Every structure is written in C-alpha cells, then in structure tokens.
From TrEMBL:
Functions in the biosynthesis of branched-chain amino acids. Catalyzes the dehydration of (2R,3R)-2,3-dihydroxy-3-methylpentanoate (2,3-dihydroxy-3-methylvalerate) into 2-oxo-3-methylpentanoate (2-oxo-3-methylvalerate) and of (2R)-2,3-dihydroxy-3-methylbutanoate (2,3-dihydroxyisovalerate) into 2-oxo-3-methylbutanoate (2-oxoisovalerate), the penultimate precursor to L-isoleucine and L-valine, respectively. This is Dihydroxy-acid dehydratase. Pathway: Amino-acid biosynthesis; L-valine biosynthesis; L-valine from pyruvate: step 3/4; Amino-acid biosynthesis; L-isoleucine biosynthesis; L-isoleucine from 2-oxobutanoate: step 3/4. Gene3D superfamilies: IlvD/EDD C-terminal domain-like. It comes from Vreelandella rituensis.
Length: 568
C-alpha cells in the first residue's frame, strides 16, 4: 500500500490510510470489512440518526445502508456511523425537553468530530426529526466537504386523520371534560401508525423542505413517505451523488449561499412552516458564514404569500402533499413568479432552475396548495415583532385565523410546568396573556418548546381568547396566538423578567409590535428591584450550554464560525 496512487477526491482519507506508515490504520479498517481495493477509494461517511426511541428515526438504519450502497456503487467506500437523536414528542412538557435544542449542537459537534477524525472525503447525513436535521446541516457546513442531506420522510396519518398534535390537543379536551379517558386512549393508540416524522407542516417537515430549497438535498427528498420505495431510492441516489460532488469539488459553502437561504425562507413561508425555521436557518447560515437575521424574514415575508393548507393551522398532512407531487411543483410555481433565485447551485451539480425545468404542475383538482392569485395569506405568517417587551426581537406564527391583534392582561409564570397546571385547572381565562419566562436558551436552559401548554389552550377552547408569550419556543405543531423567542431573555434581564400579573400587553401582527403598557420610569424602577435568578444547572451539558449559547435572535448557537474554511 506504500505506493498507492493519490486520488484528488481522497484529500482527507489518503493521509489516514496511504503508505507503509499507515499499516496500523488499515489493519483496524480490515477488521470492519475493508478490502485492499477499498483503501484507494474516496471514503463517504454516512451519518445516521437511527434510534428506536422515536418513530421519526426508527427506520433510518436501513436508509443509511441504502446510502452506503449508493456510495459503493459509484466507486466510493461507504462508512456508517451514528449520532444521537432525542424525541421532542416524548419529552415535551418535561424537564427532559431542555435537552432538545442542546441536542442540535451535540449532533453538529459529533458529526464534525467523527468525520474530522476519520478523514472522510464526503458525507451523507440522514435526519428524521426536528433538531437532528439542522444539527446535521451545521455539521456538514463546518466540515465543508462534498455532502448531501437526506430526510427520513414523513409518517402516514393515524386513524381518523390524526397525528401527534391530535393527542396533545385531546389531552386538553379531556382536562376540559369534553373527552373521556376511553376516547383519549383510542386517539393515543392510533395516532402514530409507524415510522416517520410528525405528519403536518411541523418542524421536521418544515426543515426538510427548507433544506431541499437550500439545495442540500436531492429533488423530492423532503416530500416522501418514510416507508416507501421512493425514500430507499433517494438514499441510494444520495450516496452516488456525493461521488459526483467529489469529482467537481462542490462543497456546502458553494451551495449554502445567501441567495440559497433566501430560497429556503421563501419556501418555508409559502408552506406555512414552523417558527423553529427562523432559529435553525439563522444558526445554519451563521455556521457556513452567511449573514441572515430576523429582519430578513420580515423583508422576504412582505413579498411571499402563504399557499399551503397544511396542519397545524390548516387541514392537510404532508403525506397528502406527497401524493400530489410534494414541494417541487410549489417551488416551480414560486420560481416562475420570480420569488426564487433559480441560479443557485444544488447537490445535483445543477442549478435550482435546471432541477425544476421539467417539473409538472399540481393536479387541477387539488386543494392543498392555493394559487398565487388567491393565497391563504398575502404575506408571511412568520411575524418578527419588536417593542419594549422584545428590543432584540420575537417570533410569532400568525396565520390570521386567530386574528392579527391581541390585547390582554398578563398572567405570569416562571416555568412551563407552572403555566400548564394553571391552564389545566381553569386559572387561565379568556383575555389573559400567558407569560412563560426563564425558559430561554440560558435561563431554561435549552429553550423548551411550549407545545403542551399551547395544545392545552386549544383543547380547552381558548385558542382565540388567550395569547401565550415566552422566551422559550414552540413546536411546529403549536398554533393560536403565540409569540416566542423573546429577546433578550428574562434570565439575561430582558423586559420579560419585569412583567407582573395584571400588566396590559398588546401584540400587533400587522405593525409587528409587542408592547407592555408601562412607562420607561416604571420599567426602570422594576429593573432596579429585579434580581437575577441562580442558574438551574451548574454541572453537565445543560450548564455548559447555558454558559456559551447565544441569544435566540442570533440562532442560539454555541460557536461563532468565522467562515466556511473551518476544518478544511
């Protein structure tokens, strides 16, 4: 092996396995299946998020094997490794949910760690749940080696057109007395029929769509059922595509450009996607050295309408969008209307416009995607709010169904659990603005999702009569008059820390403001009396995260990259 040829595609693997001095490395690899001929092939790391702790990822082991086979078929050597995943759906409403956003950083770190150590020349990353998708993309961006992301796919609907959010809202209906225990158990038993990510335009499907629009997935990857031949074929093709990217030395930094991020934001808005997309896209852009901020969502949102009638605010599920063609016809529609940058490079090696050139329109009789001439909402549902409660910004998902303005009296809670108990026992009533604070990136720590309290509000029939604001965040399944990501967070002394029961709060999604009816003098007096709480964790991963994490307004990231040259 001392005189093996140097293949320019093997920029990272050659120093690990070439030459007499690397005999020990080769000996280790022979034990896991490498043959003589494999040492001269480009190595493609397959980052799998397989786990049987959640249906979102329970099938990904087989998908990883398909991707590895695709890399092998194209002349490379696939090597599968795992990273972690957690389940928001299981952890929501518990202390464990504080690890959710933290896991995004752990996943990113772990992919960088394994690929950086082992010398993979290219990568395929396969994700199937909320945090592991942006975590995968951030890891690929840090490494900046030819890479493709694959989405694990969406789940099928449960009995009676149900899904995980149906279960959360059924819990709220039960607490109100509208659903007995037998009915609740029936929904619990049938809402999740098998593998795949949560079935509406929640965070998983939102991020998968955004990543495809970004150009980092093969066309169609974001809109396939988890259990399908199409998804197997997608994974096999992704493994092959990495070898083609290696031939042309096309890296994530060539694809994840400013214009590509604008495309991703545009598609998220058109689909009525999750508020988490704001947090994750800003974080992903930061990692690859692209400037993207809250104001960009407002600017793009003024020209992009909401077209998709998808859950949680709409009627349909992702599997039903899959059945009529997925997001490719939508992207073609947006491109033809001048709302997408068609010259952006993608992992096919072609531009977005080239990928969409032969895409057929949706069937004439479909009712999931509205025409541009009659949108569901003429501007974005993602509203970036500023005001004396959020000087650095906040993020709301306002579809218009819940109205565009809410004014009410504050009912203040220092944790999600406290708020949940008072919603369930009827303390929270019509006209309240539920304030949940000390749940931000540092204060939580971990910026928990508030799916349980928002679902309880909906389940109790208060969706249009109660608002909820927080320095935490929301699940893609949350809907109603909700505002999250309030920055600065309460733990850092943000104005949310100064709110008292009975204060009047006004949220206006037309002028994009969130204000508390207090004078500057009153705020100053309250600030002088405020004392910063002690950290909730002083050891372990949550404590480390709290010490280094940035504000939600900058993506809640734990490292600030100087640009895409990291780990080259």
């Amino acid at each position: 092996m001392s005189d093996s040829p140097t293949d320019p595609r093997r920029r990272h693997s050659a120093p690990v396995v070439d030459g007499v001095g690397k005999a020990a490395s080769r000996a280790m690899l022979r034990a896991v299946g490498f043959k003589d001929e494999d040492f001269t092939k480009p190595q493609v790391g397959i980052a799998s998020t397989w786990s049987n702790l959640t249906p979102c990822n329970s099938h990904i082991d087989e998908l990883a094997r398909q991707a590895s086979a695709g890399a092998d078929a194209a002349g490379g050597k696939g090597v599968i490794f795992n990273t972690i995943t957690i389940s928001d759906g299981i952890a929501n409403g518990t202390e464990g949910m504080k690890y959710s956003l933290v896991s995004r950083e752990v996943i990113c770190d772990s992919i960088e760690t394994v690929a950086g150590c082992e010398g993979f020349d290219g990568l395929v990353a396969i994700g199937g749940c909320d945090k592991n998708m942006p975590g995968c993309l951030m890891g690929l961006a840090r490494l900046n080696r030819p890479s493709v992301f694959v989405y694990g796919g969406t789940i099928l609907p449960g009995k009676g057109h149900t899904d995980i959010v149906s279960v959360f809202e059924a819990m709220g209906a039960h607490s109100r007395g509208d659903l007995d225990l037998i009915e609740l158990k029936q929904i619990e038993e049938t809402a999740i029929p098998g593998p795949g990510a949560c079935g509406g335009m929640y965070t998983a499907n939102t991020m998968a769509s955004a990543i495809e629009a970004l150009g980092m997935s093969l066309p169609g990857s974001s809109a396939q059922n988890a259990v399908s031949q199409a998804k197997h074929d997608d994974c096999h093709a992704a493994g092959q595509a990495v070898l083609a990217l290696l031939e042309r030395d096309i890296k994530p930094s060539d694809i994840m450009t400013r214009e590509a991020f604008e495309n991703a934001v545009t598609v998220v808005i058109a689909l009525g996607g999750s508020t988490n997309a704001v947090l994750h896209l800003i974080a992903m852009a930061n990692t690859v050295g692209v400037t993207l901020d809250l104001d960009d969502f407002t600017t793009i949102g003024k020209r992009v309408p909401v077209l998709a009638d998808l859950r949680p605010s709409g009627h349909y599920m992702m599997s039903e969008l899959v059945a009529i063609g997925g997001i490719q016809p939508l992207m073609k529609l947006l491109l033809d209307a001048g709302l997408l940058h068609g010259d952006c490079l993608t992992v096919t090696g072609k531009t977005l416009a080239e990928n969409l050139a032969e895409v057929a329109p949706y069937p004439d009789d479909q009712t999931i995607i509205a025409p541009l001439s009659a949108p569901l909402k003429t501007e974005s549902h993602l509203r970036i709010l500023f005001g004396n409660l959020a000087p650095e910004g906040a993020v709301a998902k306002i579809t218009g169904k819940e109205g565009t303005r809410f004014s009410g009296t504050a009912r203040v809670f220092g944790s999600e659990e406290e708020a949940q108990a008072r919603i369930n026992d009827g303390t929270v009533v019509a006209g309240d603005v539920v304030v949940i604070r000390y749940e931000g990136p540092k204060g939580g720590p971990g910026m928990r999702e508030m799916l349980t309290p928002t679902s309880a509000i909906m389940g109790r029939g208060l969706g249009s009569e109660v608002a909820l604001i927080t320095d935490g965040r929301f699940s893609g399944g949350s809907h109603g008059f909700v505002v999250g990501h309030i920055s600065p967070e309460a733990f850092d002394g943000g104005p949310l820390a100064l709110v008292e029961d009975g204060d009047m709060i006004t949220i206006d999604a037309q002028v994009n403001t969130i204000e508390i009816d207090l004078s500057d003098e009153q705020m100053t007096r309250r600030r002088a009396a405020w004392q910063k709480p002690a950290p909730r964790y002083t050891r372990g991963v949550l404590a480390k995260y709290a010490k280094v994490v940035s504000s939600a307004s900058t993506g809640a990231v734990t490292d600030i990259a100087d640009g895409p040259e990291l780990n080259k």
